Predict the 3D structure of the following.
Amino acid sequence: MNSSIILSSVTFVYGLAGVLYMVALLFKQGLAGKLATFVTAVGITGNITGIVLRWIESYKLGFGHAPLSNLYESLIFFALTIACLYIFIEIKYGNRTISTFSSIIVFLTMAYASLSPNISDRIQPLIPALKSNWLIAHVLTCFLGYAGFAVAFTISLLFLIKKSGTNSREGIFSRVPGLDTLDELTHQMVIFGFFFLSIGIITGAVWANSAWGRYWGWDPKETWSLITWFIYATLLHARLMRGWRGNRIAVISLIGFMAVIFTYFGVNYLPGLHSYGAIK
Amino acid sequence: MKRTQHQNGSGNLIWNFFASVNLTIVILISLAASSIIGTIVPQNGKPDFYFHKYGEVLYRVFSTLDIFDMYRSWWFRFLIILLVINIIICSINKLSTTWKIIFPGKPLFRKNKFKNSSPRNEFITTTSPEKLKALFQKVIGKRYRHVEWETLETGFLLFAEKGRWTRLGVYAVHFSVVLLLTGSLLGSLFGFDGSVTIAEGEQTGQILLRDSDLVLNLDFQIRCDDFSVSFYDSGAPKEFRSALTLLKDGKPVITKDIIVNDPLRYEGINLFQSSYGKLPPRNITLVLRAGKTGDEIVRKTVQLGEKIPLPDHQGEFVLNDFSHQFHFKGKNLGDAFTGSLFLKDKGAIDVVIPYPFPRIDIHSPAEIEKINAFQIQSMGTLPDRISLSVTSRNSGIVYTINTAIGETHDIPEGLGRFTLEKFERSYDFKGHNIGETLIGKLQEADGKKQEIILPLRFSQFDRMRKGNTAIAVADLQQQPVQSDIIVSVADFQEHYYTGLQVTKDPGVWVVYSGFLLMILGCYITFFPAHQQICIEAVRKGDQTVINIMGTANKNAMSLQRKLETLSAQLNRLSV
């Protein structure tokens, strides 16, 4: 069994979980919900197995390194962190509906990694710039942060949908937690994301300083991570100091997640006078 | 820090302006939005690049607003300074109230501070309040730093709190931002960021500063003893390694191999591996063999440009150049040297020496013939007789003139007299090298003289003159000259230069403390809460009614769950 095959199958497992969550939400099927949780657990197990196997495979190829070194590996890890986070919240808050959109994001992330022709799932050796102990700390914290924001995004989405549908009485969202709870959950997830994004940016800066002699160089990727940080800092200040709640917080959370997506993918399309890890 | 609320005048207005959280939000959004510009418009490029890309009008607008170096522009710095002032003033403003909560002298608990709790936090037991007191002391005392009791007529009130100090977390975060910016300011004032390239075996004490292109003299010399690069099978780079020695007053003080992620640090100055390049090779071992026998005539290690005399005063050989992509007769040979053999009896012969040299059986005459054909002479010598074609523009007739260097011939139709003057191996025409060229002089019937250029590569060249005649080289069979010497390279040394980033940043430790403080501060701000609980135990008949209440400065949901767990736990114990 090779890790790529396992990870490709995990894509469909997550897809199934997404469908089950959807069914549970729309048709109020408790059984589907329980099944969804179980399928997610299977997906997470497969996901972890795939990553560990990939790690071992890279050692067998002779250039062992943690599987966090390219787009494919980061997507796989991103999916795992979101899945773990939504299952955690599901258990902690005893409500399955909040997992619905998250599970779809997990599925899309895995599908993009496994099916996009532009993303190579080959295990490649590390280029000199990536050979650092900071690699794991940096990527791990960044993606924990991204996962927090992704889950916050799905909860904000749920909030906005539920709020717009509140007028129609017998709304399909009766099982969804109350607006206050969703609002509070968004806030908690943003805090989680913000904490890890901060550490991610900081570990990145320390790494940059040990590799290139500058802890900050206004590289597009750095700058966009800072823009993301500013947006969520705005959210936190508005909420904690100005008492913003509900719609406004949800909207900032959506905008923030767009910035996350752009930091992650969009930056590759920007003109840069220098690119990451490149040796002149 | 205490300020009176009844201050009058503009001072108060300004203070309130900077103490406003709305201002914080506006600055944060402005910083986020304006930072986008610098990721779309490439930064620190050359003016002509921008001029071409954006056109004159946009160029002028962008230029005025410092968009091409926006993160160091006055307005971006202004935003950052504004943020710092805002952070400091907000913190001072809030700290005075927070301080009172954290250090109230004696903490004051009042029951009415606590909200009515959910029914789940209430339970009834038969145990007497006195027994409960001892039980609760054990459980609560373990979890809460500060516990106080208040005796009621029929029971007691228990107040407990923890995490009061966590309210300071947010100030730590704010102070860390100030530290970061102070550190970066220190770095830009007292540090530098430059680069230098050093060839293997050489040393320098000067670096080029990054942003100003000024030269900075270091108080030590950097010597590059060796550079090596290795690649994976896929061709991706594996490692760049420079062996560096720092010299002070000519004496080595430190020696270290640096790779990307492992710099050399010396007296606050850091040397990072940042680039590399190839230089012409060194110490080239040349072998000259007799073509007929394959016997070695000369073996010598030389540098490019060096001359090797041949034995018996036959002439000499000069190694001219080296290329990684040598094209010879339409074929890419890869690494190859070029040189010239100067033979007394045959003149100059250009020699191409591919590396590695093709394997040949040096004793087989046929093989030697082959290598000679391959190696020798991209050009030969000129034949004695040269035939030129002269086309008359009026009649269209083509005449052939058989001539030689130095001869003069009449052209029919009275079109003038042509003298072939010389042959040049490489001729410069208006700044372009047009290669091997014959040069002559045409004297027309009216006495006008003009130079005629006949490049061997471009047969139609003279038509451009648009004269009464168009002259071209009709037939020129160059005679390849063969020497009976085979030149080969047995070995050479790759010669690299290493590119180093040289930085000094005395502010970096301030920045790093800022980083640590920010992580710590964020953790304290976000996760542990300042929690206060109040447990009321009142005897009603032969039962004791226990009610658990609490407040926290953050994460109300989590507090609720904690209270429920606590309630369940106490309930179990109280039986």
Q: What stands out?
A: Chain A touches chain B through 50 residues (CB under 8 Å).
